[in-house]
Write a structure and sequence with these properties.
heterodimer, A: 226 residues, mainly alpha, globular, B: 241 residues, alpha/beta, six-stranded mixed beta sheet, four-stranded antiparallel beta sheet, 37% helix
């Protein structure tokens, strides 16, 4: 297990170094985030639907689609010079490869979310600081789930002709449970509802995370074999 | 190429692989011991790259087996993967990393001691010591090929697989690669070299094979002069092509 973790950290470190150097996906995700929040802010009719009702959905739509930009890049990096072959040839196990990609994607998506959340608070005047603890817990649980699935789907999509188009098509159906749960939990947190009303959605997120982490690790090997 | 009392370093038994209706590999067999260099010649589409990818563990054969030191090659076996180095058409390098970062990354995956020092030594060996901090994506084709060679040999593999390694190299780089291959032979590494270049292959090989349409039509210790071999190669490719 120690070697798997060491290899996973090496692979994640390499991906993050590449992203830090180019910042292509990160800047794209940030610009996308700001644009989506601005569009929702100025396009909605505040007299028709209240901000409190709309904001949780907007937050999670923004997170989900911004994350797609980073997830697309996860295995796209390995396409250049067939670097994926170099990884498969090395002693790093397939599990280490998956976990390395997962870790790098979590850092990427987490960084985008960390910048998007204050923007969301400013655009929609939501009391983010007042509920920061529970909100971060929901964001963390939902992010682990959809990044776990997204990392697997990225490894499948990268071998198709239109990888950038295929990833959302493959991934979005699997994101309905975590995104729905996250929206429901976020709405209750912002509304100041008792914790007992949120806990069911949190349990669903935990169950989704555990199930899909295990399934993705088991299936990953078969998605990258020729 | 005859198996000794102990197990040969590399043995291939009845390998077969198809891609849809195309039979890329059929009944390929050979054994190699330490210090032996097998040069495989063949026209385009003969299945040479498919064979190397199976030997490297990147592709599963439909039939047959690859034995490393008498043990069936198992892709999950990290110890076996440390024994093999592959130089392919592609460099397996990251354009956004520097030359030394690329090598250090692979060094860490292979668990070499002091990856940084090892990377610098490997760059020195291929004449790229002054390019350690150059971003790989800005290097010329020849320099990238030398960097790819450094990557493949970084972990000191005892089985080295080379797929057209001279492609894209200028004369100086080709000479350096030739010297490195001679050194590998002297160090008793087992080498499988796929090439179109009969002169380069014959100079380095201890054994030769001609592969046409997925089959070995000839596989034997090197004998005869280059002109004789050239004639046999032309006949074999014409007869089976």
């Amino acid at each position: 297990m120690g070697e798997v973790l060491r290899h996973a950290l090496t692979i994640a470190g390499k991906d993050l170094r590449l992203e830090f150097r180019s910042r292509t996906a990160f800047l794209s995700a940030l610009v996308f985030t700001a644009l989506v929040l601005a569009i929702f802010q100025f396009a909605r009719d505040p007299t028709a639907v209240s901000t409190a009702d709309l904001a949780p959905g907007i937050l999670w739509i923004t997170f989900t689609f911004a994350a797609l930009l980073g997830l697309n890049r996860a295995f796209g990096l390995e396409r250049e010079n067939r670097a994926l072959d170099g990884l498969l040839l090395s002693p790093a196990s397939r599990t280490a490869l998956y976990l390395g990609k997962l870790l790098a994607n979590l850092v990427f998506v987490g960084a985008v979310e960390a910048i998007a959340l204050p923007l969301f608070a400013i655009f929609f005047n939501m009391p983010v600081l007042r509920v920061l603890g529970p909100l971060v817990a929901v964001i963390a649980l939902a992010t682990v789930g959809f990044v776990a699935v997204g990392t697997l789907m990225s490894s499948i999509a990268v071998n198709t002709r239109f990888a950038e188009l295929m990833l959302p098509v493959l991934m979005l159906p699997f994101l309905m449970p975590p995104v729905t749960s996250a929206v429901q939990a976020t709405a209750r947190i912002f509304a100041g509802r008792p914790f007992s009303e949120t806990v069911g959605w949190l349990r669903l997120l935990v169950a989704y995370d555990v199930t899909f982490l295990v399934v993705c690790i088991l299936v990953f090997e078969h998605t990258i074999e020729e | 190429m005859v198996a000794s009392a102990r197990h040969p370093v590399l043995a291939v038994r009845d390998l077969a692989r198809s891609f849809g209706p195309v039979r890329a590999l059929r009944g390929v067999e050979f054994t190699l011991d330490a210090g032996e260099v097998l040069a495989i010649f063949g026209p385009n589409g003969a299945g040479k790259t498919t064979l190397l990818r199976i030997l490297a563990g990147l592709l599963r054969p439909e039939r047959g087996a690859v034995l490393l030191g008498g043990e069936p090659a198992v892709r999950a076996d990290a110890r076996q993967r440390r024994r093999v180095g592959l130089i392919s058409h592609a460099s397996f390098l990251y354009d956004g990393l520097t030359a030394s970062e690329n090598l250090e990354f692979y060094g860490r995956l292979y668990g070499v001691g002091d990856p940084r020092a090892r990377a610098l030594a490997a760059l020195e060996a291929v004449g790229l010591a002054e390019r350690a901090t150059t971003i790989a994506g800005t290097m010329s084709r020849g320099m990238l090929q030398r960097l790819a060679i450094a990557r493949a040999l970084l972990h000191d593999p005892d089985i080295v697989l080379l797929d057209e390694p001279f492609t894209g190299l200028d004369q100086a780089a080709a000479g350096a690669l030739r010297r490195q291959l001679v050194r590998l032979r002297e160090e008793r590494r087992t080498v499988v070299l796929v090439t179109h270049n009969l002169d380069e292959g014959l100079e380095l090989a201890t054994h030769t094979a001609i592969q046409v349409a997925g089959r070995f039509v000839e596989c034997a210790p090197k004998d005869g002069d280059a002109a004789d071999y050239r004639r046999r190669y032309a006949e074999a490719t014409a007869a089976h092509g």
